[in-house]
Specification:
With about 190 residues, the chain is mostly helical. The chain has a single domain, classed as Up-down Bundle (Four Helix Bundle (Hemerythrin (Met), subunit A)). The protein is built from eight helices and no strands. Helix 1 packs parallel to helix 3, helix 2 runs antiparallel to helix 3 and helix 3 packs parallel to helix 7. The radius of gyration is 17 Å and the shape is globular. The N terminus is likely disordered.
């Protein structure tokens, strides 16, 4: 089992090519509701965001600029993109609002973990988290449901949505277990 690590969040860690790619994805995430005026434009922007999610990590590894700040921001930007995008699609009547509960089942549990993580962060006990297989599969299925919704293939999007919910809960349960295990290691 990997031991918890101290992680520092420094804005200067983003002053590199990988950080620029991540911040660019943040701009897409924030602008997504405006881009949804034209679903083709929104789909193109979402595709660029997905590619940039792979590129930023690759660039960081190849340039030796991997940082805790970059990893944390990468995860948050993904959440902002998907939540902002899903809410915009609900407002544009492209999907039912209740799908968001399934799409973000993982994030709902992670939000419930926030007091634990904040307490540990304040004490300097911050783990460098890595995603699990269930977390990666959840992300892939969420992206598939997102794209299918933009394409208005709602029958297929519904199948992907029903798969995302339970898999997201499995991933979140693993993350919660890991966080609680870290706390017991540090006592």
């Amino acid at each position: 089992m990997r031991s918890p690590q101290r992680g520092m969040l420094r804005w200067t860690d983003l002053a590199n090519a990988a950080g620029a790619v991540t911040v660019g994805r943040l701009a897409i995430a924030v602008a997504f509701p405006l881009l949804l005026i034209d679903r083709r434009l929104a789909l193109l922007a979402y595709g660029v965001a997905l590619v940039s999610d792979v590129v930023d990590g690759t660039v960081a590894r190849h340039t030796g600029t991997v940082s805790h700040t970059g990893a944390v921001l990468d995860g948050w930007v993904d959440k902002i993109l998907h939540i902002n995008g899903a809410w915009a699609m609900v407002l544009h009547d492209l999907m039912p609002a209740w799908w968001m509960a399934l799409w973000f089942s993982r994030e709902i549990v992670q939000w419930l973990m926030f007091p634990i993580l904040l307490h540990d962060f304040r004490r300097g006990r911050v783990r460098t988290y890595t995603t699990s297989l269930a977390g990666r599969l959840t992300a892939v299925l969420l992206a598939l449901a997102f794209v299918l919704t933009l394409l208005q293939e709602l029958d297929l999007a519904a199948w992907a949505t029903w798969a995302v919910g339970p898999l997201g809960l499995v991933a979140a349960t693993g993350y919660l277990t890991r966080a609680l295990d870290d706390r017991s290691l540090l006592r």
